Amino acid sequence: MTTALKKPRCAVVLCHPRPDSFCAAVAKRAEQVARDAGFEAFERDLYAMAFDPVMHARDIGDPRGGGQSRDVSQEVALLGDPRVIMLVYPIWFGSAPALLKGYIERVLGAGFAGPGSVPVPMGPSPDLLVTIATSGATSDWIEQKGIAASAGSIFGAYVAGALAIRRAEHIAIDNVIPTMSSARGVAELDAMGQALRGILTEGGERTIAEPAVRPMAVEAPDDPIPSSITAQEDG
Length: 235
What we know:
alpha/beta; disordered C terminus; 6 helices; 34% helix
């Protein structure tokens, strides 16, 4: 009797309040790409699950804290032991949303008490962290302000390093605006999917200094983008 090999798990963490946003469409495509690459992929929608981002004393890796909060322990158990974690989010005011930061601190960082402490990791321990960030600003403006690195590649690399995740990758999609044409929206999803496919299937290391894909040139809107990939408020 042959035993079927267990598929590696891939968690896609979405942080956007609108279920019809472009970010949501990116998360769905990322989940499908992961499945096609042989992963058991699943989505965690932080807004839909009404995740509490507030760090509590008991969440910190300190025995006096009394252990994890129930919602954290339940989320850690649900995640299991994913080989890959993807974070899909918009860049707001130059950084990732506070809700996502809370998820990183409370769930992914469970058991890490901070510098100078001895970590007792209680959260997942993946091999790969992929950050996929959208922005409503132009590529030139984002580069000029340093946001591409601070809220994107460096953000992901820092989180990966802090949580002992071996590898970090970043995909950036800029110029995501409400008037973005449906044709460009589809093209951006395809480009993201292709870049992500390469990240998931390659065996070697990639540089994290530059995003895996850069946005397409700005174009005049043609027809309204379908509600399934609405770009509203992604910037």
